[in-house]
Design brief:
Layout (H helix, E strand, L loop, with lengths): L13 H17 L21 E4 L2 E4 L3 E4 L2 E4 L5 H22 L6 H17 L5
Antiparallel strand pairs: 1-2, 3-4
Organism: Mythimna separata (Oriental armyworm)
Protein name: Reverse transcriptase domain-containing protein
Length: about 130
């Protein structure tokens, strides 16, 4: 059984990275799966390489930020983008349940349970990493 999702390849040499990705793509295709190049992106930290890598005949452009396993990584190593993304996710979840949380007729215990089950996990997801 083959399954590939959210794969991170770490290399110091761009040519070596392109070679590894092409081998990975060929292995997936031989196993009956495919690599969706349109959904892929790459980020390079502290490198002056070109802004494009080639996978077969397709090109992937370089990005300053990368979403990986729910976190937003930045090429500088700062966590500001990740914090902003997490805050945005919490506000979105808050807006979903604000009708219940701000309703005076709802018991406070129910409001607390909704907060504990729906809002706090969004805020703290990945915090132990």
């Amino acid at each position: 059984m083959m399954y590939a999702d959210d794969i991170a390849l770490v290399n110091q040499n761009k040519a070596h990275l392109e070679r590894k990705v092409n081998i990975w793509k060929n292995t997936l295709e031989n196993g009956g799966q495919g690599l969706n190049v349109a959904k892929n992106e790459y980020m390079s930290c502290g490198s002056t390489d070109s802004n494009i890598i080639r996978i077969g005949s397709d090109l992937i452009t370089k990005s300053d930020t990368l979403r990986y396993l729910g976190s937003v990584l930045h090429k500088s190593g700062n966590v500001n983008e990740n914090v902003q993304a997490r805050i945005g996710a919490v506000w979105a979840k808050w807006r979903e349940v604000t009708g219940v949380l701000c309703d005076r007729k709802m018991p406070p215990m129910l409001k607390g349970q909704i907060y504990k089950c729906m809002i706090r996990p969004v805020l703290l997801y990945g915090g132990d990493c």
